[in-house]
Amino acid sequence: MLTLKRTLPGAIMLMVSFVILYQSLLVQGEEMLNPAGGGFLPGVIAIILALCGAWTIISDLRKNKQEQATAEASDNAFSKGDYLLIFSYFIFIVLYVLSLSFIPFFISTTLFLIISIYLLKGIKWYTNIIVSVVTVTIIYFLFSQLFNIVFP
Q1: Element (H, E) at 5
Q2: What's the pTM value of the predicted model, to 2 decimals?
Q3: What is the distance, to the nearest Å, from the Cα of residue 78 to the centroid of all Cα atoms in its chain?
Q4: Which is more confidently placed, 68 or 18?
Q5: Eight-class DSSP state of 78
């Protein structure tokens, strides 16, 4: 059971990478190896994700073979509170992505960063707000001015 818990993130990464790779191959009228094509970057990301997933599985299986003491395994195990935090943060990410369709990028991303930093890092609120606003401003101007990407 411990092996399944350890290898599950790597297996999920592999499955997601295969779905992304499959979807990138479905892009019509584009060659996969053409860097200007619409399926090239998702294909590269899928391959990198698959390599990371395989690396995670292999390293976890090696660690499992080397680790014989149960005391070390119990120290590294997640508690139910950790699983709750991970699941709630995943739901929060999904809500953020869905909110981008009706809330402007600057507002939704700033709120997302403020809440994320608070939940994951727990730093002082004024530092949190400054870091979030500066980060979103830099991202906004970098992508809108340099790459000419229109934000929602």
Answers
A1: helix 2-25
A2: 0.50
A3: 19
A4: 18
A5: P
